[in-house]
Amino acid sequence: MKNILICIVLMCSGFAFGQNEQLAQYYYDKGDFEKAKISYEGLLRSAPSNTQYFLRTVDCYQQLQQFENAEKAIQDRYNRYKQGVFLVELGYNFQLQKNESKAKKYYEEAIAKIKTNPNDVYGIASSFEKKVLLEYALKAYQAAMEIQPNYNFNFQIGMLYGQLGKTDLMIDLLLAESFKNPQNTNLIQTQLSRFMNGETDNTAFKDAMRKALILKTQKDQDVYWNHYLSWFYVQQKEFGKAFIQEKAIYKREPESLMSIVNLSQFAMNDDDDETAAEILNFILQNTKDLDLLIQSNAYLMEIKIDKAAEKDYPAIGQELQQLLATYEISPFTLSLQLIQAHFLAFNLKKTEEGKAVVKKALELNLNEYQKADAKMELADILLLEEKFNQALIYYSQIQLDLKNDVMSHEASLKAAKTSYYKGDFEWANKQFKELKAANTQLIANDALEYFLLINDNTAADSTQTALKQFAKGDFLIYQNKKSEAIEQFQNILKSFKGQEIEAVTLLRLGKVYESQKDFASALSQYQQIIDHHSDGIYVDEALFFSAEIYNDELKDTEKAKPLYEKVIFNHQDSIYFVDARKKYRELRGDKNL
Hints:
Distance between the termini: 79 Å
Number of helices: 32
Radius of gyration: 32 Å
Number of strands: 0
Structural class: mainly alpha
Helix content: over 70%
């Protein structure tokens, strides 16, 4: 019983102590430093050795300009523990009082303490960094390495150089550290990426990185630098230049094509199909690995189909047939079989033949993910045929078989769109709402778009008449019936002029025209959004899509620049902000292309 009572008392006191800490933190965050001071003083009396409580108490004194109290507390603490970190605190206390000479005296004492006890560098340098006294932090690390040559603070020193604007020194030191200790390469590259892709204008930094790496590859024949330069070009999405480095690496290390395979994926994910096709053809010429041959051919066929005009379809159909004859029907060629099924159904409008290909594939000895791929394709074809309920059955099977997997989320999105196409907006929106939090950004963005579409147009029209017409137009796009989709959206613009649905209809029309290479018509739709819906949620997309047409398709950079600029300065929360800023800087001449 006595032991139980002791436990209860300890638990209660611990709970009360935790509550006191939360209260102190609450006052501190609120800016009520008088109450926070009293709370932290109480906590410090209960736990005198707690450094966090001590530093918070001192901070409260300083916020209240009680500098003498702060000085006495720090000096007492230093006298008791003799830790160099408290010399930094004393110096900072004088710096807050504009007494630079005394502040400098204590900072130098802290540095001197490292020279007698190098282990003090960790606390002292960290304290300098927290107070943004970067030059002193630099001195602290350098002093420790002078005394103890086996200490390595090159990474910390390199990062400090970067924060101090000494980017050339930072790059030289971090590249040397990467080469000397390759196990640190990923960590260093992560930090270099932050500097290259930061919010501020970082063109000078990227140019310095480029020059330093090119110089390394020229002076030092170690293949390590080709890998590093390839990594740099991938960060800049200059996949063609990265491929040049990867080919140089492969000539010297022909054991593996994996990094080249990965590069092809990066290029495809960024819609650089021309470079991706070049890389894939290189892989086909340099491998005998069956999986790699099938995978590369599958990706090449997807690129060809995506870019093909109707007149190219017979040749593509024949090429697919030839590939399957060469590599045979088996689980290993499933990707090619599903591409053939999709091509038959969506491009040649032979849905029965497409379904037959998938059903035959499902008879093979497939693993769970292969089965899901096949079922997804079958559901897509059934949806194309307007067999909504049958499509939903297959999408649901994937969701159940691969719970919490990315493929399950994709199936959920397609199921939600199926409900949307058939006009079941309430159920669709419940699914879109859940998918807004999906881990995959593309799925989350897509779900958010449809969620807002349904919500906005239901609020504006409780009968959902316009939304039903719009969903029909979206379904025609899915069915690749672009002429009918254009007519549908044009009818919506006539019937619901000036209503909520107008802006998004103009946006959809613009994208359909773009897919048909009718850029003048696409620009006309986007301009109407810019002129008449400038306060709406689609104007950033209209600006960005217009800029992309002028820049990429019409090669009229003078018209593209101001459009990118408007996205940058007026729509900083846009998902296109980063891309717009990058393109704008390129057009302005900030980047060596």
